[in-house]
Amino acid sequence: MDCDMMTSDKPHAVCIPVPLLSHVMAMLNVAKLLHQRGFFITFVITDYVHKRIIKSRGPNSLDGILNFQFKTIADGIMAQGTDIEAPQDMAAICIAISNNFIAPFRSLLSQLNHEATPPVSCIVSDGGLSSFTIKAAMEFNIPIAHLWSVSPCSFLGFMHFGDLVKRGVIPFKDESYLSNGYLNTTIDWIPGMKSIRLKDLPSFIRTSNPNDIFLKYFIEQTKWTRKASAIILNTFDALDHEVLDALSSMLPPIYTIGPHHLLSRQIKDQSEEAIATNYWEDNHECITWLDSKEPNSVIYVNFGSITIMTFNQITEFAWGLANSKQPFLWIIRPDLVNSDSLILSHDFLEETKGIGMIASWCAQEEVLKHPSIKGFLTHNGWNSTLESICGGVPMISWPYFADQPTTCLYCCEKWGIALEIDNDVKRDGVESCIKELMEGKKGEDMKAKVMELKRKAEESCRHGGSSYFNLNKLITDVLLSKCYGEVK
Predict the structure, then answer these.
(1) How far apart are CA 250 and CA 17, in angstroms?
(2) How far apart are alpha carbons 124 and 145 in whole angstroms?
(3) Of 12, 23, 146, 370, which one is the catalytic site residue?
(4) Pairing relation of β-strands 144-148 and 122-126?
(5) How far apart are CA 79 and CA 76, in angstroms?
(6) 241 labelled catalytic
(7) Contact 196, 286 (CB under 8 A)
(8) What is the mean pLDDT, run by run of 10 residues, along the chain of 488 residues?
(9) Which residues contact 108 (CB under 8 A, 6 or more apart)?
(10) CA 482, 16, 229, 468 torsion: positive or negative?
(11) Helix or strand or coil: residue 298?
(12) Residue 404 to residue 365: CA distance in whole angstroms
């Protein structure tokens, strides 16, 4: 497609996330922001995501609105009879992205350029899809921005996976390195991460297999993301200058346009409220229940859309909550526990009757803004962490995997807004952390610090704020550039 052929006065952005709920939601916020600013949006989802959203939100949930359409491509892993409500196989997703996505995505781009829509003028891709979306952008000669929806600190860790391999730090010599203290080894050569321990880096380094799927996958994706026209990070400049400076020294121009959901609140088009994605139906009774509680009295518990617990882990969390005697709202997904046993005992349900509420899913952003919420027991996924910061809610962190250990480290030690629960969760530890957050001096200190970060986040998203400015700059400097070569 030649540059001078692109004469439409409405730019057309193709947005494609990794087919995981948190990534889809992050990309959707960016797509809405671009739509608000005059872009025609094609939002690309996979067969799996399509089926999950339709099942949760109904047959018309992906109809789109004026100048905003959804398109579906084959993912290569949705076999006949697949149980779409089963936990997603992360390794299978990585393999499918590497092997199956480029052909249908390339075909879709070609198809869009022959439909009665503006020609495709740019791509906004998830950073986890870098290897094939860069190739497509080059082929169609259009600019591409990569949205990395993880925390900047964990992204910096991912960017050094290749260096860790070259230096012989990973993969581990054998499985004993997971428990012999090696994970406490300090790394002092990563700029922007002073003396970080191996255990605090994204968990995909924890392997003794040189051909580990996740390790190879992220080394490949971070290699390709260096070729993007721009990098988008869901953060705000005031949160961590040191990490952002380190990333800026090794990557294309970085645009911090977060928190996305704060910027999205400025959207005036009410029709965009119809554009939503979810894998489970929200339980709106959660808000009604919270309305009945005193201000700053409830601990909210949600471990995200991917975390899988053992029966023993959920039991320890349950009795830690019960023994704390604090009101709680606990989100327990249908696929949270890898056990066919009764998830919560009759004794626990009797002990907490009238104190706690359990639901399968909820509108988390709305919950975290509710005045009755005082603390958030979380896995420290980046979307959840930012929503907690923007709600002014301190956290108790139990990181599960991937980027979460790094985010947990920064929340607990760098920003002072969270307490960490040991991976080997015990009810006494859960009870102690909840009481400290809800009633202790540390909880008061964390509350003050998170409220200050909330203020800075809101300031960044106001007209003239850093994130507001960076969004406009991303559009004018990158996404409206007509040829890929012009923004390299």
Answers:
(1) 23
(2) 5
(3) 23
(4) parallel
(5) 8
(6) no
(7) no
(8) 50 95 92 94 91 79 86 76 67 89 94 91 97 95 97 97 96 93 94 93 95 95 97 95 95 96 73 60 83 96 88 94 96 81 83 92 92 97 96 96 94 97 94 96 97 97 94 96 49
(9) 14, 42, 44, 71, 73
(10) positive
(11) strand
(12) 19
Task: Give the E-state strand segments of 228-351 in sequence order.
Answer: 230-233, 254-256, 298-302, 328-331
Cα–Cα distance, 203 to 420 (Å, whole number)? 16
pTM over 0.85: yes
Q: What is the DSSP string of 41-96?
A: EEEEEEHHHHHHHHHHH-TTTT--BTTEEEEEE--S---TT--TTSPP-HHHHHHH
Count other Cβ atoms within 10 Å, centred on residue 48. Answer: 21
DSSP 309: B
**Could you count the other beta carbons within 10 Å of the beta carbon of residue 72?**
17
Q: Under 8 Å CB-to-CB from 339, ≥6 apart: which residues?
A: 310, 311
Location of structure tokens 């009101």: 327
Letter string b/e over residues 330-348, b meaning 16 or more CB atoms within 10 A of that residue's CB = bbbbebbbeeeeebbeeeb
Q: How far is CA 11 from the centre of its chain?
A: 27
DSSP per residue over 372-416, as a string?
TEEEEEE---HHHHHHHHHHT--EEE---STTHHHHHHIIIIIS-
Can you tell me the distance from the alpha carbon of 460 to that of 315, in angstroms, rounded to the nearest whole number?
41
- Among 12, 50, 75, 126, the one annotated catalytic: 126
Rounded CA-CA distance 353/328 in Å is: 11
In which order are the strands placed within the sheet that holds 356-359?
Answer: 356-359, 328-331, 298-302, 373-378, 395-397, 418-420
> What six digits make up the tokens of 50?
């399509």
Neighbours of 424 (CB within 10 A): 9
Q: Model confidence over 396-446: pLDDT tens digits?
A: 999 988 999 999 999 999 999 999 999 899 999 999 999 999 999 999 999
Q: Determine whether 126 is an active site residue.
A: yes
| Angle made by CA atoms 96, 97, 102, in degrees to the nearest 5 | 110
